[in-house]
Every structure is written in structure tokens, then in C-alpha cells.
Design a protein that fits this description.
This protein is α+β, with helices and mostly antiparallel strands and 77 residues long. The chain has one domain. The protein is built from two helices and five strands. The protein has helices spanning 40-48, 52-59; strands at 6-7, 13-19, 22-27, 32-35, 66-70. It has a five-stranded antiparallel β-sheet, covered by helices on one side. Helix 1 (40-48) packs antiparallel against helix 2 (52-59). The chain is globular.
Amino acid sequence: MAAQRKPILSSVLKSASYERGVLEIEFQHGDLYRYFDVPAETADALLASESKGQYFSKFIRDRYRFQKIRRPSFPDH
């Protein structure tokens, strides 16, 4: 299980955590994913990048095995 997620200032990403090769990312729209075997340097670079959404798209998305944890839930109207 990944560490507690910390908020991210990004229009795409809402929060992230990293622990022992597992990068957990919550997106602004509510989806939550775990990415496996991510090097610590990659996770650190994501959090330090000026555009976290662009960094994610270029260096993480489609490069690591992942698991979708949850979909967004919307209240009934």
C-alpha cells in the first residue's frame, strides 16, 4: 500500500504518493491509479516538475504497469 497521498498543484493531477516503487496518483476527475516499478528518481522528478501533467504524460503514462483503483463517483441528481 502506498504512503498517504499529498496534494499537487496541477490542473490534471490532484494528489500523489510514492513508496517502494509504487506511485499512486489521484487525478482531478477522481480516478485513482497505482503505477508499479517506478524508480524513485522518476517519482521525485514528477513532483519537482513545473508541469506535472505534462511530465506524467511523457514519462509515466504507458511506460509502467498500472492498476486502476477507483473511478470517480458522482452524486445522484
